[in-house]
Structures are given as structure tokens and as C-alpha cells.
Amino acid sequence: MTVVEETTQPLTEPTPPEGPDTPELPDQPRHIGGLSRSGVLSLCGAAASGLCVALLLFGRLAPLSGGLGFVVIAYLAFLAAYAVLVGLEEDGPAVRDRVMTVVLWSAASLLFAALVLVVGFTLYRGRDALTHLNFFTQDMQKAGPLDPLSNGGIAHAMLGTLIMIVIALAITVPLGLACAVYLNQVPGRFSRFVRTIVEAMTALPSIVAGLMVYATWILGLGLQKSGLAAAFAISVMMLPIVIRAADVVLRLVPGTLTEAAEALGAPRWRTVWHVVLPTARSGLATAVILGTARGIGETSPVLLTAGYTAALNTDPAHGPMVSLPLAVFSFVKSPEPAMIARGFGAAAVLMALVLVLFAIARVIGGRGPGQQNKRQARRTQRASRRDSERFAQPHDPELPPLGWEPAPGNGENA
């Protein structure tokens, strides 16, 4: 009888023992972002489910109507269906994360669509006026409501807006930044009182600021309506925005920086000027941008304090002056198509002007903490080179310091 010996072969090769010479496998990063195939299918299926639920409710099951309600019901049904589909594969935290991601992307898309709609509609309605060169170089002194777009323009409103906003910025930026530094660096009861007043002034209606300047500047002092008075009213609206935003930014400056500067013997004003303000420069530029956006679009204070004129006026202290928002209001309320086109064209120019001002402010305050321009970098390199040369030279304690010369008549004869 023959006995067959069976040898057992291992299904897998044995793992070599780990030792100091064993090569380590590279770590494979885990991708937690992006969409997979199942994620895309879940989104598409949830969107189809939400649309079908809305169609059933508005067409068959419930007596509902209206476009806005249809969109809201479809979106809520989409979120519910998406949560259910994701829950089939993921756990609770992952479901909440996916749903909140969809909500945030939806909100961002809605805001972007609204922005595109506003800008596109303004450019579309004002395209006829924007194609004429005289629209940017002439005023409306010799043009009437029935004149074609080849006659008249908004040069007076553009110049008036620039003059008013420059004067308002010259008033607001020093006062606003100084007040923010005071609130941040000098705590106490009075600073809390000032912060409360600033927060209350943030919600101040613009017509109240215009009435205040009108009562004090025009009725009280007996002066005439002018661009300077309008700039005062605009600065009243801009000041609390700049103070509040700058105060929040200055609070974000690390306290260790100011403590280090004061530990080196720097006084408080030098610490603020050379440490706190340069560190928060980008945020302070954003605060100025927010204030400018609030002030450049004001209409009612300008109408009360600057009046209205169709002629170009370059003197902000004498005579009425018009701004772009006021010109838009005056043009659009006219029933003539040419005047309406001028109004939308002026609105497009106002948006472009705001974009240019924002770009300038971002360039000025765009460098982060510790970043220097070329001139500052060269000056720092020269100072470092001089210090390294001075440290490299030998120094004897019994000898006078480097660069010292005896006064005339007090030295010893050789």
C-alpha cells in the first residue's frame, strides 16, 4: 500500500520580521475632499427627488402655487433626500458634514448669481450710454430729457463723487483709526461708553446725518449747500463703520508683540505706530473699504446738503454739487428712455469707481505683517551690513569706541 505524503503550502508568503534594515512603506494620504461617483449620483438623485416632490405638491396633492414656494419646497426636499442617500453609506457626522457643505455651496452660488444678475442687468440697460465718449466728458448743462445720448454726460457727477469721497476719507480715516486705537489701547469706562455710541451710530439712518448737517451747516451757520457739506454728512455715515471694523481688527493683533516691544523699552505710541498698526495694516485697509462702500452710495444726505446741479462744479466750498448716486436717482425717475439709459450708465460707472477705489486700498494695505517693500528691504539690508561690520571689528575695553575723536584742544601731544 502506497502512502501519499501531502505537503501543505502556505497561501501567502510569510511576512519578514521587522528590523532596522526593513524599508518603511510611504504613507498614502487620505483624500477627504472632492466628490466621488456615489456622491455625484447622490446629488443628482436628490435633485430629481426634490423636483418630483415639488411637482407633486404643487400640481397634484396640495393646492399650492407660486414660483418662490416651489423653489423652497424643492430645495428642502432635495436636502432631505440627499441626507437619506448619504446616510445609506456614511455615519451621522459625515451626513451632517455633507448636508452643511451643500447648504454653504448653495448660499454662495445664490449670492454669486445675485451679483452677476445685478451687474449684468445694469450693464445691459446702460450699454447705449456707455458706448458714447461724450457720456464721460460732458455734463448735462446743455442737454435736456429729449436730447439723444450723443449729447450730455455725467462728468459733473463723477467729479463731484470723487471730491466728496476724498474729503470724507480725509476726515474719516484719521479720526476713525485714532478712535479705534484709543478703544483698543486705553481700556476703561469711557472707552466702553464710546464703543457703545459707535455701535449705536452704525445703524444711524443716512437721512438723519443729512438733516443734522443741514441744520447746523446751512440753517445754523447760514452757509450755502455745497460739496463740503455733503462730505461732512458722508463722513458721519462712514465714521462708525471704520471705527467698528478697525477696532475688531486691532483686537486680533497678538498681545505678545506689544509686550515684546514694551519689554524692549519702546513707549506706547511707538509700539502702536511701529508694531500694532503695521501688523493690522491689511485689516485696516478692509475697514476703510467698508466705510468707503457705505459713504460712496449715499443719496439722501447729498440731496439735502449739496443740492442738485446739471453743470460741472469743481469748488466744493461754493455752489451745489451732484454725486453719481444722486444723478442715477434723477435720471432713472424720468420717463424718457435716453435718461433711463443715462441712469443705468451712471450706475455702471459708480460700480467701476468703487472697484477702482477698492483695488487701490487693497494695494496699499495688501502686504501682510512683516512684509516690506523694496525700499524698506534695501534699507534693512544696509543697516544689517553696518551692524555686522561693527560686530566683526575687534574692540579693546581700554580703547575709545569706534568712530570716537577727541575734541579740539583736549587731546595729548604725540
UniProtKB/TrEMBL annotation:
<dbReference type="GO" id="GO:0005315">
    <property type="term" value="F:phosphate transmembrane transporter activity"/>
</dbReference>
<dbReference type="InterPro" id="IPR035906">
    <property type="entry name" value="MetI-like_sf"/>
</dbReference>
<dbReference type="InterPro" id="IPR005672">
    <property type="entry name" value="Phosphate_PstA"/>
</dbReference>
<feature type="region of interest" description="Disordered">
    <location>
        <begin position="1"/>
        <end position="29"/>
    </location>
</feature>
<feature type="transmembrane region" description="Helical">
    <location>
        <begin position="40"/>
        <end position="62"/>
    </location>
</feature>
<keyword id="KW-0813">Transport</keyword>
<dbReference type="InterPro" id="IPR051408">
    <property type="entry name" value="Phosphate_transprt_permease"/>
</dbReference>
<keyword id="KW-0812">Transmembrane</keyword>
<feature type="compositionally biased region" description="Basic and acidic residues">
    <location>
        <begin position="384"/>
        <end position="398"/>
    </location>
</feature>
<feature type="transmembrane region" description="Helical">
    <location>
        <begin position="68"/>
        <end position="88"/>
    </location>
</feature>
<feature type="transmembrane region" description="Helical">
    <location>
        <begin position="344"/>
        <end position="365"/>
    </location>
</feature>
<keyword id="KW-1003">Cell membrane</keyword>
<comment type="function">
    <text>Part of the binding-protein-dependent transport system for phosphate; probably responsible for the translocation of the substrate across the membrane.</text>
</comment>
<protein>
    <recommendedName>
        <fullName>Phosphate transport system permease protein PstA</fullName>
    </recommendedName>
</protein>
<keyword id="KW-1133">Transmembrane helix</keyword>
<dbReference type="GO" id="GO:0035435">
    <property type="term" value="P:phosphate ion transmembrane transport"/>
</dbReference>
<feature type="transmembrane region" description="Helical">
    <location>
        <begin position="154"/>
        <end position="183"/>
    </location>
</feature>
<feature type="domain" description="ABC transmembrane type-1">
    <location>
        <begin position="158"/>
        <end position="361"/>
    </location>
</feature>
<dbReference type="Pfam" id="PF00528">
    <property type="entry name" value="BPD_transp_1"/>
</dbReference>
<feature type="transmembrane region" description="Helical">
    <location>
        <begin position="100"/>
        <end position="124"/>
    </location>
</feature>
<feature type="transmembrane region" description="Helical">
    <location>
        <begin position="203"/>
        <end position="223"/>
    </location>
</feature>
<keyword id="KW-0592">Phosphate transport</keyword>
<dbReference type="InterPro" id="IPR000515">
    <property type="entry name" value="MetI-like"/>
</dbReference>
<feature type="transmembrane region" description="Helical">
    <location>
        <begin position="229"/>
        <end position="250"/>
    </location>
</feature>
<comment type="similarity">
    <text>Belongs to the binding-protein-dependent transport system permease family. CysTW subfamily.</text>
</comment>
<dbReference type="GO" id="GO:0005886">
    <property type="term" value="C:plasma membrane"/>
</dbReference>
<feature type="transmembrane region" description="Helical">
    <location>
        <begin position="271"/>
        <end position="293"/>
    </location>
</feature>
<feature type="compositionally biased region" description="Low complexity">
    <location>
        <begin position="1"/>
        <end position="12"/>
    </location>
</feature>
<keyword id="KW-0472">Membrane</keyword>
<feature type="region of interest" description="Disordered">
    <location>
        <begin position="368"/>
        <end position="414"/>
    </location>
</feature>
